[in-house]
Amino acid sequence: MPWIYLVVAGILEVVWAFSMKQSLGFSRLVPTLVTIIAMAASLWLLALAMRSIPLGTAYTIWTGIGAMGAFVVGIVFLGEPVNAARILAALLIVSGLVLMRVASA
Fold first, then answer.
1. DSSP string, 32-60
2. Mean pLDDT of 82-99
3. Is residue 104 predicted with pLDDT exceeding 80?
4. Which residue has the higher pLDDT, 100 or 18?
5. Sign of torsion, CA 37 43 48 49?
6. How many whole angstroms separate alpha carbon 69 and alpha carbon 103?
7. Number of domains in the chain
8. Mind listing the pLDDT tens digit for each residue in 7-47?
9. What is residue 100's predicted lDDT score, i.e. its pLDDT?
10. Range of the domain at 19
11. Residue (of 16, 20, 104) closest to 63 by Cα position
12. What torsion, rounded to 10 degrees, do the Cα atoms 46, 3, 64, 69 define?
């Protein structure tokens, strides 16, 4: 169950990052509220996951899911650029996440 909490917390990190962008500096009410709620839920689930998963592993996985998710959302929904260097950087993040998970088994 802790790993499920951690993955959902990471997904919620992507939600709050995207909604923060949509809030235009917290000037739009609905995206601002989504940001606050998703942040609180993400941190709560991260805390639950850290009851069983070591801090370094949990935090690394959580931020990695958030980074990769934000990268994909930026490309798909916000028209951010895709180039070889950005894709390589994303692949390095994913490989680090996989290695962290394997090392924590």
1. HHHHHHHHHHHHHHHHHHTTTS-HHHHHH
2. 92
3. no
4. 18
5. positive
6. 22
7. 1
8. 999 999 999 999 999 999 999 999 999 999 999 999 999 99
9. 83
10. 2-103
11. 16
12. -90
pTM of this prediction exceeds 0.85: yes
CB 6 within 8 A of CB 62: yes
Share of the chain above pLDDT 90, in %: 85
49, 58 in Cβ contact below 8 A? yes
Q: What is the DSSP string of the chain?
A: -HHHHHHHHHHHHHHHHHHHHHTTTTTSHHHHHHHHHHHHHHHHHHHHHTTTS-HHHHHHHHHHHHHHHHHHHHHHHH-----HHHHHHHHHHHHHHHHHHHHT-
DSSP 22: H
| Sign of the torsion formed by the C-alpha atoms of 98, 94, 45 and 50 | positive
Which residue in this structure is represented by tokens 């235009």? 24
**The pLDDT of residue 103:** 85
Q: Tokens in use for 78?
A: 């916000």
